[in-house]
Amino acid sequence: MKRRVVVTGVGLVTPLGTGVDKTWEGLCAGKSGIGPITRFDVSDYAVKIAAEVKDFHVDDFIEKKLAKHLEFFVQYALAAADMALKDADFSITEENSTRVGVITGCGLGGLPAIEKYADIVRERGPRRITPFFIPMVIPNMGAGHISIVNKAKGPNMSLTTACAAGTHAVGEAFRLISDGKCDAAITGGSESTICPLAVAGFNSMKALSRRNDEPEKASRPFDKDRDGFVIAEGAGMLILEELELARARGAKIYAEMAGYGLSGDGYHMAAPPEDGDGAVRCMQMALDDAGMNPADIGYINAHGTSTPLNDVVETRAIKQVFQEHALKLAISSTKSMTGHMLGGAGGIEAVFTALSLYHQLIPPTANLENPGPECNLDYVPGTARECNIQAAMSNSFGFGGTNAVVIMKRYGDSK
């Protein structure tokens, strides 16, 4: 028999602020975390904007000697995990350590360090490469260091499924606990690749917004004037626990995990099929896993990247899965304010989905002024909305045609 799994703690490091309260308040106020790139000289770049984390102080979370050998994506992951553990009031002890897993998602890992040390080896020779280089860049080091620092010895893995990685991580952690492989997990996603190589690479694909003069309005999912996503950084982590253990210790419960779906498009390395087939099957799998009908879902945290193709295809997929109920759904893209955190996005948006259920409040889609052709659903434009929702879905779709969906429901005793 499958075990029930609940969300008992959350942690966030985002362009809207370090900490859950700061981020959630900014998100629900429609605040943008997007601005000019400060990490490097963008004079020669067509894209000059990003959503950088601005108020992160590593000394608040990580011992100085360790921190200097960690890339930002690991620092953010450790910080968000620390917040989530404290929020859950969850202690990892010698007795439970082998039953606590760490499952994280990350897309590009330590790309900034690869870029930096490639220059060093060319210009100054191989002897100038630090022995910490390889451990800096491996994408699983978020999960690895969370495990090491917190002595979590259960299942440990990091998924690198592009922009679906964070959602895959949450889904897999849910499945591991439900199946009895562990009793609790620290899970989510992290990313930090605002560097010359990433910006130049995504721009060469024509994936990024070039609305440099109005950074706060650059990410505009479902709007007819959308011209690409805004690269972002950050981390979102959740504590998932088996329900009876959470109850026994009197834990606060944000939401209950209900369903998980995953699929492949088998179509193109970067573009979704026009009919959204992979997304359709993924959402339907999550509904089936949850034992829910389309009408049970009240809110979707959309993938909503602000690219011309994604937003219309995601809308088509939602219409196909939800049929007439699609017109009654509340849908929003929080990337309109946070930007797109790539492999970290799904973890952060899973936190947002849990918070929406807990607070019964749906964040808005910012900058949605004139919906694009076919984008005619309720995307909660401009202003957060108080709601009465019992279940919510979070979508993530990545390059390579990889798709992930999780469903959460408002916590209650009903089965």
- Rough shape? globular
From N to C, what is the helix and strand string?
EEHEEHHEHHHEHEHEHEHEHEHHEEEE
CATH fold category name of the largest domain: Peroxisomal Thiolase, Chain A, domain 1
**How far from one another are the termini?**
13 Å
Q: How many individual helices?
A: 13
Regarding quaternary structure, what we see is single chain
Largest sheet: 11 strands, mixed
Residues in helices, as a percent range:
25-40%
CATH class of the largest domain: Alpha Beta
The helix-and-strand class reads: alpha/beta
How many strands in all? 15
- Low-confidence parts: none
The CATH superfamily of the largest domain is identified as Thiolase/Chalcone synthase
Count of discrete structural domains: 2
Work out the radius of gyration.
Answer: 20 Å
**What is the average per-residue confidence, as pLDDT, rounded to a whole number?**
97
Percent of residues in beta strands? 15-25%
CATH architectural grouping of the largest domain: 3-Layer(aba) Sandwich
Task: Set down the secondary structure blueprint.
Elements: E1 5-14, E2 17-18, H1 20-28, E3 35-36, E4 49-50, H2 64-67, H3 72-88, E5 100-105, H4 111-124, H5 133-137, H6 141-150, E6 156-159, H7 165-178, E7 184-191, H8 196-204, E8 234-242, H9 243-248, E9 255-264, H10 277-290, E10 299-301, H11 308-322, E11 330-332, H12 335-338, H13 345-359, E12 361-362, E13 385-386, E14 391-398, E15 402-409
Parallel strand pairs: 5-6, 5-7, 10-11, 10-14
Antiparallel strand pairs: 1-2, 1-8, 1-9, 3-4, 7-8, 9-15, 12-13, 14-15
Helix pairs in contact: 3-6, 7-13, 10-11
